[in-house]
Amino acid sequence: MKKFMIGAATAAFAASSFAAGFGIYEASSRGNAVGGTLVADTFEVDATANYYNPANAAFATNIQVAVGFTAINPYADVDVNSKSQDRMNSGWFTVPTFFFTVPLPGNFAFGWGNYTEYGLGTRYGKHWDLAGDTQKTTMRQITLSPTLSYKIMERWSVAAGLRASWLQFGNHKCPNQGDPYYYATPYGTLAAQDAYHLRSKLKGDDWAMGWMAGTTFKATEDLSLSAVYRSQIKHNVRGHFDLAGDVSGTLDGMLAVPGMGTLPAAALLGDKVNFSQDIREHGRASAKLRLPRSLTFGANYRATEKWRLGASITWTEWASVKNINFKLPNGRSYTQQLHWNDVWRFGFGTEYDVLDWLTLRCGYTYDMDPSAKNHGTTMLPSGDRHIIGTGLGFKISENLRLDLGYSFIRMNNDDRFIKLTGSDGVERKYKFSSRNGTSHLVSATVRYSF
Fold this sequence. Notes:
The chain has helices at about 1-15, 30-35, 50, 265-270; strands at about 65-80, 85, 90, 95-105, 110-115, 120-125, 135-155, 155-175, 180-185, 190, 195-220, 225-230, 235-250, 255, 260-265, 275-290, 295-300, 305-315, 325-330, 330-335, 345-355, 360-365, 385-395, 400-410, 415-420, 425-450. With about 450 residues, the chain is mainly β. The strands form three sheets. A 14-stranded antiparallel beta barrel has the order 1-4-5-7-8-11-12-17-18-21-22-23-24-26. Strands 9-10 form a two-stranded antiparallel sheet. The protein has a two-stranded antiparallel ribbon with strand order 14-15.
């Protein structure tokens, strides 16, 4: 039984290890407020250009530093087979950022950025109906990015840089929760209801390398156009897999015994009617994950000295993440097939200098969900996202600025099908519905120029 249970836990883990649509685009309070539309911004260049487009840093005339954070709180109402569950609420998690840019001789500029490109966090009630798929999941990622930009001519710049990516993944679940334990006898099969009391945990991390390149062209003094390419990053997350708990209960039922008619199970099983068996396993595990490449285009326009507009569009090749390959203790392996789709992200934003020391900002983003309907996961609520951003910018001194922002994310109601293998070895499909999915984002960034 122990070998079977460990195999069942393996399949349950592999079915939901990583969710589609876990991109993080919140690199600065100003960028959040205007829908990320700073890709071609050459009118107010700051150190966060190292994320949005390092080619813009070539237009900076002095040293720039930016430090900030975004706090995110996602939650949603969820149903399983039309049965209401505890609300998904992972609490608040914080995305910190740090950037600086240094102009160099010969039209060069060096930039550095610490930021987050991917991440997720979900938590459900301990006894919800799909705890066998996931009960709690976290993914943390940090990118360290040195870049070099060069201004080829007065209106045209290019840039390239590295992206050292650290990724940590943790997943908790309760394999086969609520399933009966089936006991075979020469006369028939008995079942103990709700016999599985197990908890599995997988945690690991990895460093991997990618790269990025960008270009910016100032078509006029008031209109800039840009493009940014980010490469794939191939992670091989290594860590440990733990499985602990017991399988226990009381076997009940009636058995048809040849020549004796129907007898209670206790008449044949004696002291085996009540049973308990501990399950313990600890070992090394790994998972190969490919983070997708993307291509972003942007345009920024200065309508007046006080009013600026921006737009951006991002294509992400999620379809390239065809599967995830897992290796678990005792030589077991599993390949999770995925059917994600390439998606687009559209952003529009504007900012207006109301006073010399105060700037108002707002923006809208439409973010498509790449996950497939028949290959869902409970680690992240599905559905296209609508993001409304607002913010204020304060000019505290000639060199010091403070940006504050708030964004509200509304996720479309959506249904996905989750596949789980039960204790009897039969794969079953569950309808997982996400309703009223929302996120609150609160951000602040301090920018200083020397």
